[in-house]
Design a protein that fits this description.
Elements lengths: L17 H25 L5 H13 L4 E2 H7 L7 H10 L3 E5 L7 E5 L1 H22 L4 H17 L1
Antiparallel strand pairs: 1-3, 2-3
Length: about 160
Amino acid sequence: MAVELPENLKQSKPLSTTEEAVYLWILVTAEQLKAETVDLFKQRDLTAPQYNVLRILRGAGDAGLCGREIGDRMITRDSDITRMLDRLESRGLIRRERQTDDRRIVLAFISKAGLATLAELDKPIVAWHKNRLAHLSENEMKTLTRLLRKVLKDG
């Protein structure tokens, strides 16, 4: 079965497998979606990974998280979480506290300014999601989610 490829790849020869075509579609789609959100984050002087950190810390609430735990929850792996946390802290978007019972542990917490920044982005991000996926039915979105989960789970 021949699978149509994204036009921007300008592939003149057919791929050897359907799996390769599916893989390329996933990569091209992810890159396109990522590129479309860059401007939303730039408006708040954030990168996508920084936005992800703020969302993770908002979800952690008052418990906070150490850098390793944040790294484990990241969508894209960043090898230098500490430096990213330094930048977010210098901007007042997060705060860090060294634990008194174990001084080796430093927890990060989202600040009021970080929460306000996320609050400013929440509606535009939701609107972007809705607009970008408006042409898919609820069933199609569920099917897509199920298939992507299956790719990750069984891979």
